[in-house]
Amino acid sequence: APEGRHHRGLTDILAILRSGAAADPDLAATEAEGMRRHRLGIEAVLERIRAVGREPVAGATDVAVALTSQGVHDALVVEAGWSYDEYQAWLAATLTGAVLDGPGRPAAECG
């Protein structure tokens, strides 16, 4: 699928960026900006969900950012050999369950 090829190319670029970020402050800043924009994109999607009358669980942004992280993708697609279509179907179902129907962020313990 074209989406899979596009995502594989992006995965390669992100891997190069991550590997260079430790040694190069400019690459580190670029990586941090990418992560910031990713979070903003997730927040925009959650606002649209709220606009149609659904309330995401507490901590939905954090959960969605974690589930859509490059590390989760790599663990499933690169390391475990899932196809991009399998990953995409799993991610859609998991995000829906976790962000809309899940328990949300645990309350902090008092005391």
Condensed summary:
With about 110 residues, the protein is mostly helical. The chain has helices at about 1-20, 25-50, 60-65, 70-80, 85-100.
What does this structure look like?
Helix 1 packs across helix 2 (25-51), helix 2 packs across helix 3 and helix 3 runs antiparallel to helix 5. This protein has helices at 2-21, 25-51, 60-67, 70-79, 84-101. The chain is mostly helical. The chain is globular and about 45 Å long. The longest helix has 27 residues, at 25-51. Helices cover 75% and strands 0% of the residues. The protein has five helices and no strands.
State the order of secondary-structure elements, H for helix, E for strand.
Answer: HHHHH
| Gap between N and C termini | 53 Å
Contiguous uncertain segments of 5+ residues:
none
What's the overall geometry?
globular
Give me the Rg, rounded: 16 Å
Average pLDDT across residues? 83
- Structural category is mainly alpha
Helix-strand layout with pairing:
Blueprint: H1 2-21, H2 25-51, H3 60-67, H4 70-79, H5 84-101
Features of the shown structure:
111 residues, mainly alpha
